Amino acid sequence: MALLSVEYLSVHFHTREGVVRAVDDVSFSVEPGQVLGIVGESGSGKSVACYSLLGLIPMPPGRIESGRAVFDGTDLLDLSEKQLRAVRGRRISMVFQDPMTSLNPYMRIGDQLVESLRQHHRVDKKVARERAILSLEEVGIREARQRIDNYPHEFSGGMRQRVMIAMALITEPELLIADEPTTALDVTVQAQILELIKELQRRRNLTVVFISHDLGVVAGLADHILVMKSGQVVEAGPPRQIFRAPEHPYTRQLIEAIPTSAKPAEGALEDTSFLDVRQLYTAFPVYKGLFFPREVSRVEAVKSINLSVRKGEILGLVGESGSGKSTLGRSIMRLVDSQSGEVWLDGKSLSALRKGELKRARRDFQMIFQDPYASLNPRMTVFDALAEPLLLHGLADRGNLREQVNQLMDDVGLDRRSVRKYPHEFSGGQRQRVAIARALAVRPRLIVADEPVSALDVTIQAQVLDLLLALTRRHGLTMLFISHDLSVVRYLCDRVAVMKQGEIVEQGETEAVFSHPKHPYTRDLLDAIPSVDFSTESVQ
User: Fold this and answer.
1) What is the pTM of this model?
2) What is the pLDDT of residues 63-85, one digit of tens each?
3) Integer distance in angstroms from the first to the last C-alpha of the chain?
4) Which of 110, 219, 392, 437 is 20 to 30 Å from 191 at the Cα level?
């Protein structure tokens, strides 16, 4: 007997541009104590299908057109808002992708857990607080009794996600819906959260619906997988069937997009060092005092690092959040000030450049950021965003500007007809292509790419990685590629440097590091990569 049975569910959004069929005639069920994985790209309808069951989609413009969602004998779609509130959070709980936007930043962690429990169970505050401490301990928060009065910003991303799981489970629900709970996390933290969900599911005999765009993540967790595309279920079955004998072309596309192989072979790289980082040290002061703040300590983000990148090489810089890799990239770019050390680009010291000289020199080195929506001006069309650096550096005039912008659109695979659109009118992958085009506009020789694919669906990620490979070869670019995802680095990079706590603990040729890691931290990172061995019984 299924705990949840969804039959012929259709959810449409009625907008001024027309009707969007977000969920189109979808059916699925999940048995008690089992894990159902729902996978698909952004816009496939996987989240909308689950959110609509709990009344969490905006209505209007959303509307449930048809279907049933029977949970333990009751059709959720027939319940009033008051009746649904008694189920939501009590019998069915959710864990969302971004805990920082789900947790109240003005409330202590303990107060939020207590509030969630007391809303659904009649317990006094003292008992609720003890239950909250036990919940935090259960999800692996150390010194929970001391940390229960902390605010969300005082926890790391992984710890905040553990708090969200504790909040979802404190009411002892029968069904947990986890919506992309590991997408924004480092590979090691992702592995910990996945293992935590598996352990809690086994211990509590919990039923779980796990939503993800990454088939590799779902493979080791789910008993049954549902593949969605454009609002419809295109394939369903146990993991072994899905991975060994996928029937639908879209499923095969998702599997092929999982980065598992090494970078395609290419010609020999030049031996000459193009980028030299020498004894670079960057620290951030910590101040205390409201009216007369004084420096009480320093956070050492980059500790006297030496690094070199050959001309035409892609060097991968990997490590967990807080390892200092992004600060190193920004220090190289002169976006943050270093206290000591030097950065040399093709024999020229970037560290010695003054403001005006630095502005002119930026033609040679550009940066691609993780979130293109935050780095692109929302009030500028794509044409204006690409034209600005061309005009600023005198690389185009009004006579040939349109031609050069169109060429940039061609280079990154965007339709020229989209050039008058604004950033919000593009998908995440398309926005990242715009950001890449903007970085290429000034014809740089070095690009620092800081987590440029971590927020993208696996298929879009594969497209952007192939684009970066093609562009580096076509334009003879040198690249520092910063990532926490070692699978991506293995596919893209010639060499890899591993950072931990502001220091480089290992570096070498990519395949050598992957095949024979020397440092225990590198081995931990490699062990945490979600993998699926298609040739063995490891897939259910």
Assistant:
1) 0.73
2) 999 999 999 899 999 999 889 98
3) 22
4) 110
